[in-house]
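To whoever is on call:

I kicked off a structure prediction for a single chain this morning and the downstream step that reads the tokens threw a length-mismatch warning. I double-checked the sequence; it's 309 residues and nothing unusual in it as far as I can see. Pasting both halves so you can look.
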Amino acid sequence: MNIEEAKKIPIADYLHSLGYSPVKQQGANLWYKSPLREEHEASFKVNTEREQWYGFGAGKGGNIIALAQELYCSDHLPYLLNRIAEQAQHVRPVSFSFRQQRSAPSFQHLKVRDLTHPALLRYLQGRGIDLTLAKRECRELHFTHDGKPYFAIGFQNVAGGYEVRNSFFKGCIAPKDITHIRQEGEPREKCLVFEGFMDYLSFLTLRTKNCPAMPNLDRQDYVILNSTANVQKAIDVLGQYERIHCLLDNDGAGFRATQAITAECSYRVRDFSHNYREYSDLNDYLCGRKQEQKNGQKLLLRQKKGRGI
């Protein structure tokens, strides 16, 4: 099986063959409880017209091959195509029926305030973020979800939606899009690209710490993807810059996003992820959490679980 043959397999039918069925439908979108993580509310969407999926909880999306990467925890394309081919013999066309009901927005009664809540500030401090910078760049959101009140840090995108974070939750208030921060005055020649807003805040914090007298935070523009699924949207705005510096995550999705930007913008792109190659991302670098430490902690947790602890 090659890439084009794999892409012809409907994602909904493929998921059904694996035992996953949608819980509701909104137009061309089927909503699932995510196959990538445990959850109580459906946050995994499949668009049956575009044959694209997006997991709001994981902040990832793409085509059927990108789904296989997450399901089988591998970036090796021949292996993924083999796994898809093996499963393809069990794939059958499936139709789903749902009770017709009017769907309410997941997030309601949204109120946007200045960022002041002590619990949210403690969360940011735990991530090593400079609070003065965070208060300037982020907002405090209060909203209800399934009738229950919540509050979280909000980071706005160009479409008016928000990336949402607190100690217990990572998600977004639609619409999902990139964030493009442009400085006032003359157009800037350089733009820095980050995967998430926590990495953007980490960069601002590091630059302020390392160059307190002249951090020069306004000498360049910034693009925050808010998801590697938004790479094409970022490419659409990066064409105006002479220099593009990518500071994405040190994982398969981050590498692929950098490669996609490089393929479009060529010599103007520089990959700076090697500056924190021993770390998963820029925020881990800021906090000093190396990949080896995190992997060791995960292994210890698995061992403890195996002993019944």
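Update from on-call: the warning came from a stale cache, not from the record. Cleared it. Sanity check on the structure: DSSP finds eleven helices and 15 strands in the chain.
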